[in-house]
Automatic annotation (TrEMBL):
Glycosyltransferase 2-like domain span: 4-165
Superkingdom: Bacteria
Protein name (record): Glycosyltransferase 2-like domain-containing protein
Keywords: Membrane, Transmembrane, Transmembrane helix
Magnesium listed as a keyword: no
Amino acid sequence: MPPKVSIIAVNYHSRDLITHLKKSLQESRFYNYEFIVIDNDKKNIGYGPAVNQGASRARGEYLFVLNPDTLAFPDTLSTLVDFLDTRPDAAIAAPLLFDSQNNPYPWVGTQKLTPLQGILSLSFINKLWPNHGFWVETKHLYSPVEIGVAPGTAFLIRKSVFNRIGGFDPKFFLYFEESDLCLRIRRLGEKIFLLPQAKLIHYWGKSTPHSPAINKIFAASRYYYFRKHFGLVWALIVELFARLSPLRLFVTILMFITFFLRFYKLDQVPYFDDMGWFYASARNSLYLGQFPLQGITASLTWLHQGPLWTYLLIPISLHFNSTSPVILTNIMNIVTIPLIYYLGSLWFNKRTGLLSALIFTASPQVINYSRQAYHASPIPLFLTIFLLSLSRRKYFLAALFLGFLYHLHLLTFILWPLVFLTLILQKYRPRPVHLFGLILGFLPTLLTSPLSPLRLLKWAFFLPHPSQMPVSMTQYFYSQISQFLLPQFPLVSASLFLFCLRPSRHHLWFFFPALLIFSGRVPTPLYFTLLLVPLSLFIGHGLSRLSCLTSFSILFILLILNTLSQVIQ
């Protein structure tokens, strides 16, 4: 006489689990069954194909498909069989699953897996809102409930129905095969039920540990399911959401706002006389062959800025228009953002790096300098590359960009004491190639006025300067911090700055030059370009003390306010 039920389990490196499963079934009050184990150890043909193989050998009226990492209660099987015996309209009966602590899994019975359900429950939305219950029939079951998809972990199905639909689709190696099976069954007009009286313990993930290979199989099955039942377009949409992590989504939104803030109304960007000096110099270099070795005259009339900005403008002078230089500085500014993330991650941690990049992205002052095609505008990019090179002990690049910084603005010489201190702490050993990088970076200055850096150091550190009133210094600092964060709310900006005070040797790159700038002769706002990157890192590090939600919420509000301000202007 054939058995009433054929129990099918697939073994893949889970012999011990199957032994425990078999023992729990032996304690069952239902005895009229056969136990079929398909061995996937030698050749893993996939879960669905293995179950199909077991079904082809089964003699029972019902098939009880079980994962190896499960344990049955004494009345589990009898409850499921009795239900199908009395409900001819039911094709599948599934038990309620419990964890190892005998707590029921709240989400077992699910609705039909549609693209909308996939977007909500297989994407970052499920991580951000894990208790949404979008695709769950009910959280608490006290009586048999019709569901859309039976848990693939365990379900009892009529063999006649299983054979009628052709069993599991063999193209599903693992995952989503139960969603496909149940969808095809429901299209036949059959019903699927979850029985809370039938209980089963499931040790989640014991038989299928997570790994990159498993994740790849999961993604492939997910795509195939939606492609098969809903078409290519919906499959691609679900994949887009499923592969879009919260971090990727955040970065995508961040980059969109970044481009918007920097390129919005670009034709309305104001220009001033000194910009024209560099544009004319670049045009003369291109068409007259007059390549300058000096830039525009500095505030100290016996000094000149470097010619590097002229050199950078030469390529775009071929097809020059009024917005070309601004596009160049905007691109440089955007490239700086991921580099700040990398620098913040290197100095502190990834969270600080991300916060710092967001601060730099949203700062009105950063955006303002990005939209002014002036010789100091590239300083944030070149300074970030310099700091990265110095931190990574890439001394050739560090020396090269130290020279480049000097040619963008003479003020960058105030960083030199910190450079020497860093080299001492790193126990730096000089090499000829490092000297070559330094010479290459300072080459125009060495050819025209090789002693000017020494004269500048003497003027800055050894000659007397007119003193500046502390009130004036405080006002200047207060003004610049407000412009950097929230110009509309200066007190909020100052409070946020004070909150971020946190000891770190890396913050010397902000405080040391800031002290020299604010204590010097009537500092101009242009000097603040040297502090944009260190200040972003300083505030990012300070905000990292807060919870992730709080810190990112603060910066998101800052980003929105500054975006609205930009649009209103």
